[in-house]
Amino acid sequence: MLMPDGSVKHVHVLARALESSSGNLEFVGAVTDVTAAKQAEETLRESAAYLAEAQRLSRTGSWAWTPATGDIRYWSEECYRVLGFDPYGGQPRFETFFQRIHPDDQAGTREKLAFFRSRCLLCGNDGKTFRR
Length: 132
Known about the structure:
By secondary structure, this protein is of the alpha+beta class. It has helices spanning about 35-60, 75-85, 95-100, 105-120; strands spanning about 10-20, 25-35, 65, 70-75, 120-125, 130.
């Protein structure tokens, strides 16, 4: 919505038409200002784009792994390129990723991961840290 001072305000509108007891059509609705949320979304998109560009330029990929399940939660575009995975093939399973580790390093890496799984500190959605 363009405001009188020239600024733009983003709004979310919910409305529905009702027929009154006299037979007239009435509209009932609500308008919510979502400008701050839209600005936060744009800032987040910009930040993600800057990170992706920095990873591309430095040839550095990033990923997030959930030790309890063994699932890979996040896999950056550059991670696909660096490790030679097809970015359109979906996130690789952890074991598939693990096979890309040099065979001489796999046993030591498995040992370190087992140690990490047994003693890792996990952070819940509420920000509290607890020992697994």
